[in-house]
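Could someone model copper (II) ion with this protein?
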Amino acid sequence: MNRRDVLRVGLFGGLGGLGVAPPEDLSRDRWRFDPGICVSDASRPALAEVADAKAPEVSGSAGLTRYVDPLPIPPVLRRTDAKSAILELRMEVFRHQAHRDLAPVEMWGYGAMWPGPTLEVRRGEPLLVNWVNALPMRHLLPVDRTIHGAEKPYPEVRTVVHVHGAQVLPGSDGYPDAWISAQGETGAYYQEGPSVYPNDQAATMLWYHDHAVGATRLNIYAGLAGLYLIRDAKEEALNLPSGRFEVPLLIQDRMFSADGSLLYPRAKGGTHPEWIQEFFGDVICVNGKVMPYLKVEPRRYRFRLVNGCNSRFLQMKLVATDGQGGPSGTSSDVPGVFQIGTDAGLLPAPVRLPYLILSPGERADIVLDFSGYAGQAMAWKNDAPAPYPRGGEVVPEDVILFSVSLPLSGKDTSSLPEHLLPYTGLNPLEAVRERVLALTETERQKDGYTEIGLLGQQHWSDPVSEDPKAGSMEIWSFANATEDAHPVHIHLVRFQVINRQPFDVATYKRTGRLILTGRPLPPEGNERPAWKDTVKTYPGYVTRVIQRFDLPQGTHSSPGEQFLYVWHCHMLEHEDNEMMRPYWVIG
Ligand code: C2O
Ligand code: CU
Ligand code: CU
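Reply:
Sure, complex below.
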């Protein structure tokens, strides 16, 4: 490839207050960095060798002081010309300081940063990306060679990028077996050449992250995640808060050991030597910082949230605090939380939320109006039990503090319109079929320890069983017979939640018969109506979604042609270990 067509994104380092040193061919390129965001290679710190694998698993993050680091905003990469340039983004080792009192730790990042740069595109303008694996041969975290696709002799470090929520052809979708190693070894479905993102879809926030079979939990945990914004004219016409008043929040829990390294615990008495069922960290990071704060002006802001945790659900409430995040002595009043969009686009109208529940993979587009709150502080606090909703594991409470301490820089001319986007509901009567797909898990005989979960009673390697016709509409009904909620994500499509209905789990597990035991519950306030790509399936309920399996616009297919995608639980430990299934869209 022509070097001139490429911007090597060799950024690195902590995200706050980075200086600029553009690569020398930047001016000739069609990609442009927002100013003030990248630093030169010359200041790159030397990296230590791979951390000692036997470092004790003692958390050094549990006692960290909250709200001492400012919220970093990932740099934005956007295209200024619609034709021909290919973006190159490298996955690299770098050092990252996640908190004032933590030493910089070794992490992996797109563009050598965590989160990776935000890719911003306009609807209808395709984006081509060369994702380059420039990572070491040894993993930063405990690999489990007994997990499907991670067996020997596959390389320990394998990556493939998926843009979550993007409508793309299979070759660009980050199929789990389409991985490549830094040495150029490839999985069975690897496709040469750049990934193509047509961006032929409504404005929303997607996110890109690793999707390698049997390694996704570790690769994302190591830092391989970033945001992807699609803009369009309809969204712009709404005059929502924008520019520095639109703030992305990638929320991910982590644990750091006393020596500062990123801590991902190993199994103790589990079903696999290393693999744990769920990771739950003792601190919450936002845009790569532990419990950051953000100084805001007394005006309207738009926040783009994604739950990028491995397995943690978030249930967040905005509460009034003092400047340090403690209980506020006087006022308990906070701005109303208005949700204006979800995973796959804007809502028809803002929905006021008493609290916000986000499962891994889900997004929320929120407007907060801080006017009238000058001099006050408020924080988003999480109280979702982990695992959700059963509980039992650590629940870090503090997410982010907003201090309304900046003077108003100018009149707030943005708006929060009463009506956002017209919405067309998909009619369940037009669905050609309903597929009942069970979520199940088993218990180990000797001690009742929960063993792996399955989707549709099948393993990852079983033949494809879901094969909707291109353009057809289907209802998928997820019958969750486990004790936990699981976020189910379907690639390619956007769907609508129809309802949730309780069923008799014991009978189902004994006989496979689905007996409904109560009336269907309508979708939750922020799902009704809404476009989604990830849905919370609650234990003991059938969760029904409806979608049309449209291939990306302009796809030429021959009759019977198979387009391969996946659907899976978005708890990363689960999807890495059997809670993922391939599916075909048939042309
Ligand atoms: Cu966000 Cu298949 O994943
Ligand atoms: Cu996805
Ligand atoms: Cu799950």
